[in-house]
Amino acid sequence: MTKSNSCALKGHYSVTVPEPDDFMYWRDQARHLIQCGIPPERVSWTDGQSSGDLFSSGNDVLPPIPDSEPTVRSSRRFMSLARNAALHSDPERFALLYALLWRLQKAPRLMEDKTDGDVRRVELLDKSVRRDSHKMHAFVRFRKIETSTGEEHYVAWFEPDHHIVRANAGFFKKRFANMRWSILTPRGCIHWDLNSIRESPPAHKSDAPDSDATEDLWKKYYASIFNPARLKVSAMMSEMPKKFWKNMPEAALIPELIASAQSRESQMVDAGKIGFEKRPATLAELKDRLQSCRQCSIGCSATQSVAGEGAPGSRLMIVGEQPGDQEDIEGRPFVGPAGKLLDVFLGKSGIARADAFVTNAVKHFKYERRGKRRIHQSPTAKEIDTCRWWLESERQIVGPKLILALGASAARSVLGKTVSLQQARGRPVKLDDGSELWITAHPSYLLRLTGDARLEQERLFARDLAAVQERMREVII
Ligand code: URA
Which residue did the predictor score with more confidence, 388 or 152? Predict the structure, then answer.
């Protein structure tokens, strides 16, 4: 790079990044401009696409860098976001990156400011580019062609939203190292000949083949692995946007597979029931068999099943609703916030948790995903009834004299019918096997309350637990 004592302090500079994904070129020019002290408002940025040719080169003339070579500050976070954001199709991206780099010189911690508009914009560009790359990895479908020399070659058509083709060449080279392939896109093409990657100018969809003989095989395979019990149409549509369907042979099957998912799920549930007539003889066997239970669809999305915990012969069985987020991860009942509150009240009432068998009406965590969070969803009556077989098996093995049901789902699971919690709590219900059921509120309900309402419910909860503790002392083992 040229150096001199002076910079052109006035005047306007225009920089053309020769290729729309050339981050290194942008970086070098941006460093140069900062060293010359040229503020963002005196620079305009364009990319090679505006000049017509994806793989052309630019010719910008910048003032010489001063001899003092001022230091250019950046941050690791800025560089990692900028690398991706530079691939975005937003024509303003290079100007935005330069404005941010300029501000970083005076505010080195700027990237940590989540409320800053420029930082936020760059984060959004980065996110959108990462998503586009993810779609490319997932939805590129190769079709076999035969070249004039008789070699097999695989060609795919893909329409990225951003300038991500070159950046993803390495991924496809690694994944499909042993076949010759081309990925054609309207933003430029890449080709692998078993030795090196070659690039070529943008292509048109008609340059790519439409179908090949392996497609029927692939469709059959896709239909066989499609799990109707895991179907969530809205999540699937956002993960696999319709725009990509036209390049994916299996997409032709999707409407039919969605339409028939419900009846196929029922078939799966019926199929899953086979083999569940014989009850487990021990808690270890029960725990083991529970892992593969798919009698309803909840188990398909949970991390693992959560069996009850405690010793056979425990006088008291405590039944909750279903494992929560933490229980699902740890594989143990009542270890999360509701469990902590339960422990406090058990302690206050003089019931040792170790003396009880603690379990749930439903053995898998049912939730709805919202972003990174998994939000608890109540099980339906049908799901509680389906899972009842497991609770009954636990009751047969443990043989508790007293059962404490926490909340309406637990009560339904023990009784096989819905009861009003208000009416049923605080007094025993005799069960067919001679044991006694006590019903109270669920600790999660208490956790959702505040102020006087919470205090009142805590009082009732403590009262119910005290009554159970009293019965524990009376019940002869
Ligand atoms: N809530 C329940 O009902 N059970 C658990 O195991 C945890 C939270």
Answer: 388
Least reliable range by pLDDT among 47-51, 56-60, 281-285, 357-361: 56-60
Query: 447 CA to middle of ligand 1, Å?
Result: 12
Ligand 1 within 6 A of CB of 310: no
- 323 Cβ inside 6 Å of ligand 1: yes
Q: Which is nearest to 320 in space by CA: 446, 445, 435, 405?
A: 405
Percent above pLDDT 90 for the chain = 67
3-class SS string, the chain: CCEECCCCCCCCEEEEECCCCCHHHHHHHHHHHHHCCCCHHHEEEEECCCCCCCCCCCCCCCCCEECCCCCCCCCHHHHHHHHHHCCCCCCCHHHHHHHHHHHHCCCCCHHHCCCCHHHHHHHHHHHHHHHHHHHHHHHCCCEEEECCCCCEEEEEECCCCCCCCHHHHHHHHHHCCCCCEEEECCCCEEEECCCCEEEECCCCHHHCCCCCCHHHHHHHHHHHHCCHHHCCHHHHHHHCCHHHHHHCHHHHHHHHHHHCHHHHHHHHHHHHHCCCCCCCCCHHHHHHHHCCCCCCCHHHHCCCCCCCECCCCCCEEEEECCCCHHHHHHCCCCCCHHHHHHHHHHHHHCCCHHHEEEEECCCCCCEEEECCEEEECCCCHHHHHHHHHHHHHHHHHHCCCEEEEECHHHHHHHHCCCCCHHHHCCCCEECCCCCEEEEECCHHHHHHCCHHHHHHHHHHHHHHHHHHHHHHHHCCC
Position 269 scores a pLDDT of 54
Q: Which domains does the chain have, with CATH numbers?
A: 3-129 (no CATH), 140-207 (no CATH), 215-262 (no CATH), 283-474 (3.40.470.10)
Atom of ligand 1 nearest to the CA of 333: 6
Q: Is 338 in the pocket of ligand 1 (CB under 6 A)?
A: yes
Question: 321: Cβ below 6 Å to ligand 1?
Answer: yes
- For residue 327 and ligand 1, the question of a CB distance below 6 A is answered with yes
Instruction: Please give the torsion angle defined by the CA atoms of residues 335, 340, 344 and 350, in that order, rounded to the nearest 10 degrees.
Output: -10
pLDDT digits (tens, 9 = 90+) for 235-276: 666 666 777 777 777 777 777 777 666 666 556 555 555 456
Ligand 1 centroid distance, CA of 176 (Å) = 46
Determine whether the shortest distance from the Cβ of 63 to ligand 1 is under 6 A. Answer: no
What per-residue confidence (pLDDT) applies to 370? 83
